[in-house]
Amino acid sequence: MRFIVLSILLITCHTLQAQTQGTKKKSSVNTNMYEAEEPKDTTKSFTAKVRVVRDISDDPEVMFEGDGASGIYTVPRRNKDFAAMLKKLEQSREPGGPSVTVSADEDKNIKSVDLNKSTKGFVPPSDPNQKWDLQQFTK
Q1: Is residue 114 in a domain?
Q2: Strand ranges, E, within the chain
Q3: Backbone dihedral angles phi then psi of residue 87, each to the nearest 5 degrees
């Protein structure tokens, strides 16, 4: 008698369990509320000519000419291309030097520097009354 009751009880529990697994609804509660958000890539790129490179703090500070890059940008020493970036920035600072394309993060830390080769050979006339040769821009 006990065997029959025990087997009926096991069979009913097994069937109830199978039914609840098939009709289980998804919870409408968000359980991922503590999941970290992905950081947004806020890299800013601009092209400008270097005005000042100064090494008075931990990281060298750079200031650019033009409206697109206002403020002081820093070149982190921990960057693996630190020496190459500083050399390119110094080349741009020289009179008649090329402009540079810079990418920096939201904290104004410079990530990469590339020289613009298109303006490397351009030298503005020394006489302010002399007209610029605009044909060289179309070549």
Answers
A1: yes
A2: 44-48, 50-54, 61-64, 73-74, 100-104, 110-115
A3: -65, -45
pLDDT digits (tens, 9 = 90+) for 64-78: 987 778 889 999 999
Q: Which of 93, 116, 96, 138 is nearest to 45 (CA)?
A: 116
**Measured between alpha carbons, how far is residue 84 from residues 40, 100, 117 in Å?**
27, 13, 16
Q: How many independent structural domains does the chain possess?
A: 1
- What 8-state DSSP symbol labels residue 27? P
What's 92's domain CATH number? Answer: 2.40.50.340
Q: What is the mean pLDDT of the chain?
A: 78
Does the residue 91 lie in any domain? yes
| pLDDT, tens digit (0-9, with 9 covering 90-100), for 89-128 | 999 998 888 889 999 998 899 999 999 875 445 566 677 7
